[in-house]
Amino acid sequence: MLSSLPDPDEHALAISRQLVDVIRAEIEAGDGWLDFERFMELALYSPGLGYYSGGSVKLGPEGDFVTAPEISTLFGEVIASQLSQLLAPIGRPVVLELGAGSGRLAETILTSLDAAGYRLPDYRILETSADLRERQQSRLAPFAERVSWLERLPGEGFEGVVLANEVLDAIPVTRFSRDNGRICSLGVGIVDGSFDWKEKPAEPGLAAHVAALEADLGFQFPDGHRSEICRQMPAWISSLSDVLERGAMWLIDYGLVEREYYHPSRSDGTLICHYRHRAHSDPFLHPGLQDISAWVDFSACARAAHGAGFSVAGFTTQGQFLIEGGATELLQREDGSVDLARAQALKTLVLPGEMGERFKVLLLTRGTEHSLPGRDLRDRL
Ligand SMILES: C[S@@+](CC[C@H](N)C(=O)[O-])C[C@H]1O[C@@H](n2cnc3c(N)ncnc32)[C@H](O)[C@@H]1O
């Protein structure tokens, strides 16, 4: 399948070769082995060279993948209607969007709230990619006096809502395996001049983490099983909990609950790469030119959120959230007819075989009460 992927141009390949040299130097400094989490960090975020740090178009038809806000404004319109209910009791509410991509979700939310007569005064964006930040600034120019970009999380005492759509899947993950009964760490080495998987016995912290996971699941992973753990996620959620004094956080992403995520049949884990709208499983292809992500373990997120002082106020599928949140009613034009193009896009967002069940919505709250539209699936977490 990989042979059918389109070739990058010479300029892109030259950037990728520079990144390969950076990664190769780290592998050599590590006696021929580099932790996969570090590889993913470099491939996505290495300054000027990583996928999110470089200047290529990432989202949309000319990029590598599309996200829900890019597919239809219906996604942002439903979020906006939820926001207006949640923000109303807060004096000077703030929305903080993490990883805002092309800025499309922010644009839809601000436009919809304005149309509903609710003028949101303060929309902030925290974006690690300088390139995406520039694209966001250009798209959001009409809202310039209300939108600002942060270099880091705001100080304590923030009241409002935090939004993160498809951000958790972009946090670098650790890969592990069970090999001949041992728990191993799956890293990156060089085989015949190219990057390849290389195993070594897991360091004590990882071995303990996997052993605790197996105890929780009630079984030991079969020999050869490979999967991922997002070890940065708890600190990420905790840092947001430190900031949010009153309000809510929406985490939306493709993901599963723990017993599905680590089901023995998912024997090669959930790592997924996107290059020019082709999904595949080779993270070593053209480093820096393709997206690398992993599905989200929502049970782990809920545990981390609970431990960080959040209430887990809702968990449902994207399909349920959008339908019960009123997306179908939004298809109607003023004359009563149905907008067929929007109806088609809604199918992509909500049908089980499309994004409807793969994507989940986790709502965390602190100092306020709110629930999610859609079937409450918290008992599955
Ligand atoms: C898959 S894109 C999703 C973009 C957008 N939310 C959307 O739905 O179209 C991931 C985004 O997260 C950003 N990102 C990754 N890690 C981040 C972090 N720790 N904090 C803030 N943004 C981050 C990336 O630069 C990118 O904008």
Would you mind describing this structure in some detail?
With 381 residues, this protein is of the alpha/beta class. The protein has a single domain (24-381), classed as Rossmann fold. The chain is built from 13 helices and 16 strands. The strands form three sheets. Strands 2, 3, 4, 5, 10, 14, 15 and 16 form an eight-stranded mixed beta sheet that branches. Strands 1, 6, 7, 8 and 9 form a five-stranded antiparallel beta sheet that branches. A hairpin with a 2-residue loop joins β6 (174-179) and β7. The chain is globular. The mean pLDDT is 94.
| Helix proportion range | 25-40%
Structural class: alpha/beta
- Regarding CATH, which class? Alpha Beta
- Number of structural domains: 1
Shape: globular
| CATH architectural category | 3-Layer(aba) Sandwich
Element layout with pairings:
Elements: H1 10-29, E1 34-35, H2 36-45, H3 68-71, H4 73-87, E2 94-98, H5 104-115, E3 122-126, H6 130-139, E4 147-150, E5 158-165, E6 174-179, E7 182-191, E8 194-201, H7 204-217, E9 226-229, H8 233-243, E10 244-256, H9 258-261, E11 272-275, E12 278-280, E13 291-293, E14 296-297, H10 298-307, E15 311-317, H11 318-324, H12 340-350, H13 352-356, E16 359-366
Parallel strand pairs: 2-3, 2-5, 3-4, 5-10, 10-14
Antiparallel strand pairs: 1-7, 6-7, 6-9, 7-8, 10-16, 11-12, 11-13, 15-16
Helix pairs in contact: 4-5, 8-10
Bound molecules: S-adenosylmethionine.
S-adenosylmethionine binds at residues 52, 59, 67, 69-70, 98-101, 105, 126-129, 132, 165-167, 170.
